[in-house]
């Protein structure tokens, strides 16, 4: 069933939130408008970006044909909108996805995310995400925006994340992230010979040549600060620890590339160097993802106000690479990832 021709304007998204199509003839006052601008004004409670994507994906037809966002309105065109809500509804369907729960109480959940798990649903990943798994294991999260997810890890980055289990926790954790009082420390393998330690302060924004990538910018973008230190230097590869003071998309990956030390096996920002020993090459091929793991996480509990600190074992594929790099040293496999803090990090998350 479709809505009748010439509905009341503007049109509300709730008019077709049940997945029904909507059909209308565009008013003549929009003659000369770009198609994307006109449709964004007619359906004002959906973002222009979403509506533009619907145009590009063929969910909006004009005179029974697909149209480009920049096409001009000529007058009296018939619009048919077939919103892809079926897919978006699936994004909030519970799925029995195995999750490693490190800690839980009535306000917070800490998980150790596995590689290959997308955090948020989106184009091409409407199901099989961390959000779907959280809704299965914690059904009450359906009442919390984004199922309590307050920060993210890239699909193929492993390690610790905190999830809000209550509204009060979500508000508080978001504020902590904005105030930079959440302590997030990562381990990574990078190319080359970085300095013993350093701090990278370079803004990050979208790459104008490839919108799926991020890049450092001299002007514009968002402030990004990463501290790093080399834990162990191997032949052509370093094992480093990185501390985020901001949380930008792909921040560590982009910053380390900017320093000339891209992450090993990073499919987007790395290189394909193979001039390593055979054991190391095999370990890198088996890794098949950026060598990045969120190993430590600290935050203030939203209710008790106690400092909550967590540490997880380095991901197994990265331990295999560390073992291959350390092969000649006959390393202790049980302690490959145990590099103790030496006081160099400024503790920024403790509150009196």
Salient structural properties:
disordered N terminus, globular, 9-stranded mixed beta sheet, disordered C terminus, 25% strand, 352 residues, alpha+beta
Q: Can you walk me through this structure?
A:
This protein is an alpha+beta fold. The protein is 20% helix and 25% strand. The protein contains 8 helices and 15 strands. The chain has helices spanning 35-42, 48-56, 85-90, 130-137, 167-179, 251-258, 278-287, 316-325; strands spanning 22-25, 60-62, 65-66, 78-81, 101-104, 108-113, 158-164, 183-191, 197-201, 203-207, 210-217, 225-233, 237-244, 292-300, 307-311. The strands form 3 sheets. Strands 5, 6, 7, 8, 9, 12, 13, 14 and 15 form a 9-stranded mixed sheet that branches. The protein has a 4-stranded antiparallel sheet with strand order 1-4-2-3. Strands 10-11 form a two-stranded antiparallel ribbon. A hairpin with a 3-residue loop joins strand 12 (225-233) and strand 13. Helix 7 packs antiparallel against helix 8. The longest helix has 13 residues, at 167-179. It starts with 21 loop residues before the first strand and ends in a 27-residue tail after the last helix.
Compile the SSE list and pairings.
Layout: E1 22-25, H1 35-42, H2 48-56, E2 60-62, E3 65-66, E4 78-81, H3 85-90, E5 101-104, E6 108-113, H4 130-137, E7 158-164, H5 167-179, E8 183-191, E9 197-201, E10 203-207, E11 210-217, E12 225-233, E13 237-244, H6 251-258, H7 278-287, E14 292-300, E15 307-311, H8 316-325
Parallel strand pairs: 7-14
Antiparallel strand pairs: 1-4, 2-3, 2-4, 5-6, 6-7, 8-13, 8-14, 9-12, 10-11, 12-13, 14-15
């Amino acid at each position: 069933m479709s809505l009748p021709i010439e509905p009341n304007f503007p049109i509300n998204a709730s008019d077709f939130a049940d997945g029904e199509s909507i059909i209308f003839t565009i008013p003549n006052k929009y003659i000369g408008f770009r198609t994307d601008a006109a449709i964004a004004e007619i359906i004002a409670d959906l973002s222009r970006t979403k509506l533009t994507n619907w145009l590009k994906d063929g969910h909006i037809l004009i005179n029974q044909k697909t149209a480009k966002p920049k096409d001009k309105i000529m007058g009296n065109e018939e619009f048919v909108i077939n919103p892809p809500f079926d897919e978006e509804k699936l994004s909030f369907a519970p799925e029995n996805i195995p999750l490693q729960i490190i800690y839980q109480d009535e306000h917070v959940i800490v998980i150790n995310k596995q590689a290959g798990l997308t955090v948020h649903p989106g184009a091409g990943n409407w199901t099989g995400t961390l959000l779907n798994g959280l809704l299965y294991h914690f059904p009450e999260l359906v009442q919390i925006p984004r199922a309590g997810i307050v920060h993210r890890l890239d699909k193929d980055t492993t390690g610790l994340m905190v999830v809000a289990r209550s509204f009060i926790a979500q508000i508080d954790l978001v504020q902590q992230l904005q105030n930079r009082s959440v302590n997030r420390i990562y381990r990574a393998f990078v190319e080359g010979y970085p300095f013993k330690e350093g701090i990278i302060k370079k803004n990050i924004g979208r790459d104008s040549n490839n919108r799926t990538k991020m890049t450092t910018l001299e002007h514009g973008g968002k402030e990004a600060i990463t501290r790093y230190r080399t834990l162990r230097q191997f032949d052509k590869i370093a094992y480093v620890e990185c501390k985020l003071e901001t949380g930008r998309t792909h921040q560590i990956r982009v910053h380390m590339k900017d320093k000339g030390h891209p992450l090993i096996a990073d499919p987007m920002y790395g290189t394909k160097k193979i001039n390593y020993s055979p054991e190391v090459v095999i370990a890198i091929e088996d890794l098949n993802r950026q060598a990045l793991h969120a190993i430590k996480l600290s935050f203030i509990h939203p209710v008790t106000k106690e400092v909550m600190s967590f540490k997880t074992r380095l991901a197994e594929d990265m331990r295999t690479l560390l073992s291959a790099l350390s092969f000649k040293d006959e390393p202790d496999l049980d302690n490959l990832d145990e590099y103790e803090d030496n006081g160099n990090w400024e503790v920024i998350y403790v509150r009196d």
